[in-house]
Design goal:
Blueprint (H helix, E strand, L loop, with lengths): L6 E5 L11 E7 L2 E8 L7 H5 L8 H4 L7 H16 L5 H30 L2 H22 L8 E2 L2 E2 L7 H13 L2 H9 L2 H7 L7 H6 L4 H5 L7 H4 L20 H25 L20 E9 L2 E9 L7 E5 L2 H13 L7 H7 L10
Antiparallel strand pairs: 1-2, 2-3, 4-5, 6-7, 7-8
Helix pairs in contact: 3-4, 4-5, 4-12, 4-14, 5-6, 6-12
Length: 368
């Protein structure tokens, strides 16, 4: 192939198919991609190192920024790591509340993903529905935590405060409002032939490739693997609620987005079960003065199932008032750097945003 026919094309970050400051340098011939090089940008540099210079409690507002779309999973994995090192028990009621918060956060993240994907494919009405329903859940977070995006609600030892009066009814009413629109979503988007033609067999990855390249979440489950940390290594109260792990077999963008749709339905079931089973009691096991708190020496690795896949944290304490070493295992790292570049090779320019959003990449999880 003659190099005279090749063109270097800079894709993003202004493109609707990109996320935040993420961009991709493409080598193309016509509309066919010969090679892709992902650039996550310079949005959040050095969070892991910055955390080593701040006290244990000061890091809670910081971990939220690693994933703006779903900060609660970041809070949870950090709280779990601190609790494991310090030997802190979490009250039963707090574990139920944590599970409710995490599943509401999953819904917020998935609705945001549906907004981005539908908008990118030109389904503007569906995108507006998704963003409106996301805002309804953010209203709930604002009432519970005082904030819409960065909640800083899950702490070592439990949660910051109990559920406000009438909160359960508001959550259930909101979920029923969103659930009543599922037939509309299905007819306008998920069962729409245009969505099928744009997403079917696009960005396809095999089960063996997904495993080898470190895929988790929807990317792995879209190849037929039922891998979900909530099932294989339960935390909070996921071992006390019934839910399914949706899977598909084709490993393409179409399968990945369908799994997002099915997971939202499972999240609603989990939340309703938590409200039914949640006991009364304390929501916070008091810890020493957090500004002078010293965690015993040791190291630990904990993980949760975020909306994008396996989220892990390796945390080391040397007995001081700050972490000694911090390292996150974020799902967007292999998805956005390794798998994205592989799937873009030989793809069409028109499907760059299509493939990236189906991989659920968020730039801050990479640039940390």
């Amino acid at each position: 192939m003659s190099q005279e026919r090749e063109l270097e094309l800079y894709f993003g970050p202004q493109h609707l198919g990109m996320v935040g400051n993420f961009s991709i340098t493409l080598k193309v011939e016509g509309d066919k991609i010969l090679e892709a090089s992902a650039n996550p940008g310079w949005l959040h540099r050095g969070f892991e190192k910055l955390m080593e210079y701040r006290t244990w409690i000061q890091n809670f507002p910081m971990v939220c920024r690693i994933n703006v779309v779903e900060p609660d999973s970041m809070e949870m994995v950090y709280a779990m790591a601190v609790e494991k090192l310090a030997g802190i028990e979490v009250p039963e009621r707090a574990n139920y509340i944590r599970t409710i918060v995490l599943e509401l956060a999953r819904l917020v993240s998935h609705l945001f993903g549906c907004w981005a994907y539908a908008n990118m494919l030109g389904f503007d009405t569906v995108a507006q529905w998704a963003m409106y329903h996301r805002d309804l859940i953010l209203d709930l977070f604002e009432e519970l935590t005082g904030a819409r995006v960065y909640h800083i609600y899950i702490w070592p030892g439990g949660v910051r405060r109990d559920l406000p009066e009438g909160f359960k009814d508001k959550v259930l009413n909101t979920l029923h409002t969103i659930g009543s629109c599922i037939p509309d979503y299905d007819s306008a988007f998920f069962n729409n032939r245009l969505f099928y033609e744009r997403a079917k067999n696009i960005g396809k990855i095999t089960r063996e490739e997904a495993k080898r390249l470190g895929a988790t979440g929807q990317i792995l489950r879209a190849t037929g693997v039922k891998y979900d940390i909530r099932k294989i290594e339960p935390y909070a109260v996921y071992d006390r609620v019934d839910f399914e792990v949706p899977t598909r077999e084709d490993g393409d963008a179409y399968s990945r987005i369908w799994i997002v749709r099915d997971e939202m339905i499972q999240s609603v079931h989990i939340i309703m079960q938590c409200f039914e089973k949640m006991p009364r009691g304390e929501v916070y096991n008091k810890v020493p003065n957090p500004f002078k708190w010293r965690i015993p020496e040791g190291e630990t690795y904990v993980r949760v199932e975020s909306s994008r896949g396996e989220l892990g944290l390796y945390l080391v304490s040397n007995g001081e008032d700050k972490p000694y070493r911090v390292h996150f295992r974020t799902p967007s790292y292999p998805h956005g750097l390794v798998i994205l570049e592989k799937l873009l090779k030989n793809a069409s320019i028109a499907d760059v945003g299509n493939i990236m959003i189906s991989l659920y990449v968020t730039a801050p999880e990479i640039d940390r």
